[in-house]
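Cross-posted from the bioinformatics board.
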Amino acid sequence: MKRQDIPEKNSGEAECPLLSEETKAMLLDFAAGRLHRTRAERIARHAAHCEACVDFIAGQATVWSALDEWELAPVSSSFNRRFWSRMAESDRAPWYVRLADSLRFGGWKPAIPVAVAVLLIAAGFLMDHRNVVPATQRGSGTGVSVIEVDQMERSLDDLQLLKQFDTTVTDATASSTRM
Amino acid sequence: MFQRVKENMGASPTPDPDVELMLRVRDGDDKSFGVLLDKHRTALVHFLRRMVQDEAVSEELAQEVFLRVYRSRASYEPTARFTTWMFRIATHIALNWLRDEKSNRAQDRLDDERGDDLPARELPDRAPSVEQRMVYRARLQEIREAIAILPEKQRAAVLMHKYREMDYAQIAGALDCSESAVKSLLFRAYESLRGRLAHMVARART
């Protein structure tokens, strides 16, 4: 940030221009005491006249000191021993156990429902299409085709014709004997 | 994933002794890995403890981080600070754990205050009175809740910024986002914390 970007005095706006999107990180660093000395001095000079920045810095200092209170107990003394034994176990474990371990912390859990859904859809599709026989194979199946019905009708017609013919022949033979 | 991490994170301009150690680990020196483990164990466990707010889980996750660091030693390329890479893995693991446990986590976990969160050096020579301990616990509870309420990425950014003193570039590398995104995350997180913790100093002064 250039010197002219930081107004020395509050220009009277409701909110300080330092609290803009571009410069807010600088104020965070200032409040944390991590800003370069030259920049920190400029901000301090500006803050002396800017109520908004003073409030911001004071509020941030509050957060900082509150977070400082949150201290933690030391790591358990058995950490290293447990780690090395876990590593030895991991080396001995079969590949699928190691894979399961990596999936356990690897963020794959959300993918599991998706994978199950895909499998179910695939299974449903296969079951739905299992009884569908291609048209070329239908002749060899147990189903009755249109051709077979036609043949049956023609056979019945032929039988009827033969029956009529047989009756006609019988009648003709009987009349000729009588004569 | 790690390859992408390496590509995304810029190389550090200053030599990093941890990178030297990790390169030795890559070359088969397990003692150097022991040095890295000793050096970063506390920082990593404490980061994870503040992230997941569970002591036993934080140690388990930290072990998982070190396991992953060790397993990826063969493909390690020093394109970033070692800690950025390690915290990237840690954040990834912590965020996954938090997401997986979100539905199972009951609010009373926060209420399950543990005595072992009281740091040894916080205790003065004379044992604190019951009232002092209660006040401290109440304040600590408020702080923990204020952190726990933050969205997970904001929480990770604040913990790295405040307790690890990582700069924006390092945090960006660990969170796989841009520096401006980190600044935005931090600003929003601190804004929320200012609102929740503002009364604490005033109360302490009175």
